[in-house]
What does this fold into?
Amino acid sequence: MMRPGVKPRVAFFDFASCEGCQLQVVNLEESVIDLIDIVNVVSFREAMKEHSDDYDIAFVEGSIMRPMDEERLKNIRNRAKILVALGACACIGGINTLRNRYSVEHVKKVVYGDADMDGNPFFDVFHTKAVGDVVDVDYYVHGCPINRDELAKVVTSLALGKKPEIPNYPVCVECKKKGNVCIFERGGFCLGPVTRAGCGAICPTNGSGCEGCRGLVDNPNTDSELEVLEKYGLRLEDALGKFDIFCYRYKGEISK
Amino acid sequence: MRIIDKKDFIEFVNLLITKDARTVVGVKAKGDKFIYDELASADELRLDFDVTVLSPKKYFMPPTETLLEYDLSSDFKVMSVNEVTPLIIIGIHPYDLIALQQMETVFRDTYPDANHLLKLERSILIGTNMQNVSPHSFAASMGTATTRYGYDLMLTDIGDSYYVELGSDRGEELLERYARVSMPDESHKKRFEAVINGIVGKFQKKLNFPADELPAILAKTYDSDLWANKAEKCLSCGSCNLVCPTCYCFDVQDVTELNLRKGERIRTWDGCLLEDFAKVATGENFREDRASRYRHRFMRKGKFLHERFGFIACVGCGRCASGCLPDIADPVEVYNTLKEEVL
Amino acid sequence: MTRENVTIYTPRPATIKRIKQMTENEKLFEIILDDDMPLGHNPGQFVEVSVMGIGEAPISVSSPPTKTDGFELCVRAVGNVTRAMHAMKVGDKIGIRGPFGNGFKTNMLKGKDLLFICGGLGFAPMRSLINYVLAYRRDYGEIAVLYGCKRPCDLLFADEVKRWRFMDGILDHHLTVDEVCEGESWEHNIGVITTLIPKAKFNPETTYALICGPPVMYRYVIHSLKEKGLPDEHIIVSLERRMKCGLGKCGHCQINSTYVCQDGPVFVYSEIKDLQEAI
It folds into this structure.
């Protein structure tokens, strides 16, 4: 927790990711001015040349793929008073966990063929990990990409010395408040009933089912969700497959 | 009572839209569903709707509403906010009118809530009797299929014209100002009565007992296995709460702008089915398991609020039943099963 | 959009006049309403405290109504609002709504023997009533306080509690802690609060027990009291729930048909013992 009234020093870091979440920060547009007014951005590769290792809050984007990533991340954790995981890759492993279904050797073979990678630490990969699998995470800004309003809420909360309130209710809540017709009633499939809200139900509002990019709520009823997906016409196999895109890490907990 | 020809009715609505200072809202199609939304022309109005996705509650208790504005750059600067857009709402079914009356009772109780009441007082409610009934609705069982109060005007489609009941002076003035009307003759009255008498027969869903037995049935079924059995499939998604026209629970949050100067204290719809609804700061959650939350909602609708306010807080619209994906929220099924348990 | 001066959600501005660190996690705040009006509360009532930008939290009033130059709140840093309060200093502004709830019925208790049973932070609202009763000591019969907390260093209002030892014949008291750590001195009982009940001598016909503590405490304490013959009508509890609005609207504190923020937080046990979920 930051002390109110003191301008915190903030740094952004990226690991395996598309850097789209940092782009969302840059896309705050005129609010960026407000942002740099209340925090002191000391490192942000995507937006500035300067870099400093003296910071209070570290925003970490991307998932952790290699021992060298783990080492770098632990270093960041040691320096930061507060560590915030930024985006699906950092929070839950995200899209990068798609490859966790296969062995590391298989993945390397498919991507790099017969290239010689022996002893090269850049190719020394393990199964994708989320940031929280390696170090303690203080706060999560979920989503693929992150929602700018939520990021602003987290930053203002930290600057005010307040614990950010990240919803522990599913996307349905925000979807219903929008007055949307349920995706299932429109012939689609949706992970909204088990996925953590905070996105403003952006996908269902625009006609596509939730893919679970914000991860699941604390106590998701995944068995019931699977039954619903089946009831509306998916085979169990395909219903389970819905969780592969972003929520692969939860599959071990699904009892079916 | 008045009669308004259908073509005159279209002109009446168009006049309201173009001439009246208030915003005109009505039932419109959205895909194969219906919603309340601002009308651009009378052509959009669909008085043949069965039920709307959300009830008109959304205008009097918006999903998110500002209660206060504050300014952190000075010592203590707080301004109360009550954003009121006076509305004319066209096409409210009787069950939703009764739901609005219940909400008003709650918000008027002990500490009158101006943020709700002022919006209601400044709006005109034009009801309409049901032409079509949602397959999940059981309003007839709840005594809410028709109503004699709660509206400024009430429309009933009697073929070539609408039979208009006057519910208030405001409603009557609205007609005088904008509509060409005539007085009903015997044939109009007969057709009106026939329509009204036919409504109850249109419901597929029914309670197997008089609704006023509900509080007593629920008093005996607190420990029923039904709650846990049904709740096993509960997604805790709050959909049943959020689409309900009589659910009024809310959460309050401070949202500060990124400049850390200005901010708003907002209230936003909450739901007792959501996991953290009864959790306190120390971490204690007074309804931690799904079953106790699931039970709370039915008890609240059929018993708790009855004890407090004297009405059964379910108007039989069926929105919860159609909005529940695992199909466990249908009050007809739950209450009929409980009735059998106490027989 | 209308901007009115006051709605039921508008907090009254107030100023922190004094702050006292009571324990590691609890501070006592003395608050003065900026319009200089007394709060006008009953013991057992609570206020909604606003720290603008952070939020609002229900906090019971710790001072007796007999103190009219401001009122006191004993605050544990546990949520956003309370943590923000702990970071504030004398002269800072907060917002106050209330007092809310029913409080203890001090007139009904007149002439009765009173047995206070407090656990942890539950002592905060109880201290309001204890000091009120001490101010009108002649109106009441025997008074005993059983007070338990986790460790000796968690004792709230320790100075006042220490003075009780000089109040023989005025107030009987028994203290307990769950554990004593190395280096801490403790000459009283060690064990859960119920272990104090046998030590208190009381006549079940004339005694009213007043209970406030963590949720887990009530069931055990009530059981012990009933074993000692105390009728349900003589057991008075103050319950904690999520009282978000204080106005009987937001629904969070509802126990069956009861809104704790309006009908409570103080209840006579006989009236709520059949209320499922209450205890």
